[in-house]
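Hi R.,

Here's the chain you asked about this morning:
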Amino acid sequence: MFEYLKGKLVKKTHNKVVIEINGIGFAVSIPLSTYENLPELDSEIQLNTILHVKEDSLNLIGFFTTDELKLFQSLLSVSKIGPKTALNVLSFISIEQFRSALENKDVDKLTKISGIGKKTAQRILLELSGKLVFDTDSFSGDSSRKLGVFEEAAEALQSLGMSKMEAVNAIKASGLEIIETTKIEDIIKASLKRLNE
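And here is the predicted structure, written out as tokens:
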């Protein structure tokens, strides 16, 4: 129904944006991988979208690349995986890392993601292995490396006792610009410093 939305970005958080189109604000759920690529507020933006329909709600979900959308749709095809878990996958693992996990049958990599236990990880590997084809032209290697740095820092903070959400929020609140060359220890220090202020 909604293949994409194009309009002005008027609000953004790590899991949701509001896009204004002709005076109407569309709330769109997003994964962290999309958040990392968002422009400044009031910029024009276009997101690939899918409308998820439940008995009691309609939820627009948006993605920066078609590969993110494809992975999301593929994950929904796996039994017992819903939108929340599928978004968690895209928030805590890059597409390249997911592809690698599929190729290497890496159950442990997938079970680190919130909402995915060993049986679910095994189902993902069984049902999606060899079936995913990504548009490499639409996928940014730089973005993958940046997301990988973010993920490593989040995992390090979790090892210090934080939940995944707390770790993500702490990194966001650090005010540190994260690029592929940012040192993990710098992210951790900045995140912990802001929490202690």
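One quick note: The first helix runs from residue 32 to 35.

Cheers,
M.
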